[in-house]
Every structure is written in C-alpha cells, then in structure tokens.
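Supplementary Data S3. Sequence and structure tokens for construct A.
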Amino acid sequence: MGLPKDAGLELFSKHGPGKRNLITDVPGVTVGNVTLKGSRDGGTDSRDINTGVTAILPHPGNIFRDKVMAGVSVINGFGKSQGLVQVEEMGTIETPIILTNTFSVGTATNALVKYMLRDNPDIGVSTGTVNCLVTECNDGRLNDIRGMHVTEEDVLKALSSAGEDFEEGAVGGGTGMVCLGFKGGIGSSSRVLSIDGKDYTVGALVMSNFGSSGNLVIGGDHIGKRIRELKNTPADSDKGSIIMVIATDIPLSERQLKRVAKRATISLGRVGSYCGDGSGDIAIAFTTANRIPHYSDTSLLDIRLFHDEKIDKVFEASVEAVEEAIISSLYHADTTRGIRGRLYEGLREYL
C-alpha cells in the first residue's frame, strides 16, 4: 500500500516503489498485526482499549539458526526496548521483531521466548539463550496502558498470522499511537533500485508516535501549521516515540546497516520532527542477503558487502522509504476516540 497514487501527497522520490509498496516487497519478509479495541468490561460504549501487536519476520526459516545481519541506531534513547544491546554488539538479529506498547514489552518478550523455544530445543541446554527483540512506544494518550491488555496469546497470534499483505494505520502495535498531532500508527513503503544490473529492494515499516502538532511537513509543504491554524489549537511538545525498521535484500555488512539506520534521522527531519527530549527514536536495519549460521563447521564465513563509495543510493532509498512510511502511517490511520474521551483525527480528514 504505502501512499496511494491518488492520495494527493507528493513526496520527492528518485526511486520507485515495489509491487506492494510495503516492507514485504523484500523477499521473505512478512508482517502480522493483532489489533485490540474495546472495553475492559466487555461493554460496547467504552473505548478505553486501543493497543495491539505488530510482528516482523525477517525470513520464513529458523531465524535463531539462520540469523540476519543488522545494525541499530538509537537516535534518542528515551525508550524501553528489549534486545538492542546484543544487536549492537553482535550485528545480528535472531528472532522476529515485535512492536507493541511500553507496558507490554515484558509480556511480548515472554511470548517471543516461548515461540523461539518451541522450535529450538537446544536453546538454554546445549547452546546459549536467545536475544528477543521487542520494541515499544507509549500509547497511553488513547489506550488504557495501565490495564496491560496485550497477552502472550496476542503476540503469538501476530507471529502466526504474518504474511506479505497487511493493513496500515491504526492497527497492531500502532492502534493507540499519536503522531504530529494526528492519529499515528503502522506505516510502510518500499523502494526498488538497480545495482550492477539487478533489482534490489529497500523496505521500511514504522510505528509512529512522535512529534508536535503543527509541525507536520509533507514533501516540503508545512501542512501541519495550516491545519493547526484552521483548528485554532496550540502547539504541544514533541513527545512519544517512533520505531523504524528497514529491511533489504542488498548485501550489506552490520557496519553498513548501522549507517543505513542512522539515516532514518533525515526522514524524521523531513516530516517535521526535531527528536524531542521525551521521544524514543530508534531505527533497526537488517539484510536478508547476509545470513550468519548459529552453528558452523568452519571458523571462517564468507559475506558480501557494498562498496562504500557507491552506497549513497542505498542511503537515499532508505531515507525515502522511511519518510513515506511515516506519512503513510498517518494517511491510513482512522480518526480514533480513546480513553478519557480523547480524540485524534486521521490525516485524511484534512486532505
């Protein structure tokens, strides 16, 4: 999906999108969402619960035994994610990536551990433990976050339902998120680029929950300022978080993937963020092309990597993909009324 061609939102782009304009245009990558909306007592009137889980699977095989190379950029560290330290140290991801709300990180970690133990009887017995990767944003503006409504079953359902097609907007982990004064959520896009005569894909998925109202910029147009003036509402502080996941089938080293992840900062600046004090801004980049086996009969492994002096086109495509994914998260998010009657409108209300 990404941004539909008839959305009327023109972003500067040198590289065209993939078939779906989603992160799943990268071969083997799948995404699953579980969306939780309703009330604590089962009633139909309450709108306290607006939360969920999004799962990203880097490839369809056993990720623990066949790890993907990865890099992390903690742009602003106001966050409570699980597993980033080992990714930073080892340069690999060995589980699916879970996106959820802040108070569900522990629940999601427990569920992901059980998911990995199910298919890997050697974990914790004849080999080490597993580094589960769980990321979060605070959805407390629209969700009863203290109720801790996400269950382990929700996480496992998101994992089991992962596929190439998935919804964007107020779904999954993005159900209760707010971004730049609008309803935020899950957004995705992709870019295709030709390298040495072969097409490769860079895909992005974000969970957007950051920024000040009035600051939204789309394609250089300060649309947020005009909408704030139209609504006659004051600006608020830049708070929240964003998780940005970049996937590719381009052969890159973990060092190069960290460089790609760093460029997500540019995408944030393009849409109007200044990475405020209370915003947890984290980017994760991985490649499906370079795999690291958990077990190996040899001490030396062969990997391919990009020539650094020619890598600019990869940086450019990743910046474009993350930027569009952020705007797409706003475009696809429906107006939502949540806990304590708070209302956040979808961007489409003003287009």
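Construct B, processed identically:
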Amino acid sequence: GDVDAVEAHGTGTRLGDPIEAQALLATYGQTRDTDRPLWLGSVKSNIGHTQAAAGVAGIIKMVMAMHHGTLPPTLHADQPTTEVDWTTGAVQLLTQEQRWLDAESRPRRAAVSSFGISGTNAHTIIEHVPDRGLREPTETHPPGAAIPWLLSARNTAALRAQAGRLAEHITAETSTLEVAHALATRTHHEERAVITHGTPEERHQALTHLARGTTHPHTITGHTNPDNH
C-alpha cells in the first residue's frame, strides 16, 4: 500500500500483459484508499523494447519521475485492455500526466518490473530520498596520494589513440578523481597503461607521449591476459 506506481514490463502482448496486470491488481491493488490508486505505466510505449536494458530504462524513468514529482503518461493506452478485469483492484493506467504526492508527507515509492527469457524476472522497489541539503562532492584526497588513470585497449594502436583522445579532452579544470573513476570502472582489455600521478599538465604530457609511443616517467605500460584481470 505504500507503493504509488509500478513501471510495468508491459510489452503489449495479449498473453503477457493480462497476466502481469492481474498480478498487480491482486497485490498492489488491494486495500488501498479509493483516492490513491496504484498508477501503472510502461516506458516501452516511448522507446520500444530495449531487451536486456528494459529494466534499466524503467528505473531511469521512475527515478526522473520522482525527481520531478510527476508521473508521465503511457502512450497509446487510452483504452484499457478488455483482457483484464480492472474492477478487482485499485489500479489505473497512466493515460494522463499525474502529479506525484508531496515527498514531505512521506517518501515517493515506485516498483519496476523487468521480465526476461525463460522466466527470468526482476522486480525492485525504489524510494525517493528527500533533499537534506547534501553538498556537492569536493575533490579531496590525502596529500601526495597517487590517483592513477587506467587506460586499456585491445591493441597498441588503439591504446595510443585512446591516450590521444583523452589528452585532447583534459584541461586545467579537469577533475582528476572523476577521470580516474570513469577510467577505472570501464571495461578493460589486454593492452594497459597507467598514468601514475602528476598535475593536469604533467598528465597531459604523459598522455601525449603515450599517444606518440614514447616513454614518460609518469607512465607504465604492459600487456595482460584478459582472463586474469
């Protein structure tokens, strides 16, 4: 009863949609206040079925809806399917934009469903976090701490090209930590290089040398077995 909306899998099929809707009616649709139905929608009406990314798309939609305090309508759903008995629970389709309740009274909550092949199902509940005056993160780390930049590619030429692109991107205002995090959390390949430390200017020089295939005191290169990261 504390869940306000469900982002359904909602593929638009005569078999799957009624099963999903009846399950929601039998669970979230029960013992609810008459003036607070469960709102039901699906982002597939906007972008189609993104296969393995369908659940992520639904989560992104609901997080943004929470942020803006608005539940967006589902396209092409003006007439509820007759394959579902909508009188068995308090569930309504999002045929029009709905203002979400004020998060000050209680947290906004939504559920997101994603159903995969052979019954691989995922259902998650997300909750709005109220703004408590959180500050923007600052770039702080122990004095003298090394913040490595990790580069990798499938071959040497690709590694040099990556270094060249990164050298063109960074400036004196570039966040060392943000770049380090982005590089460390991407997919890694066989050819590796590490910019170990240095000022933005020194890192730019190290990247330029790497792009040219020359050495630099702040750079370490090597090759690894992709099966043993």
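The mean pLDDT is 86. The longest helix spans residues 54-68.
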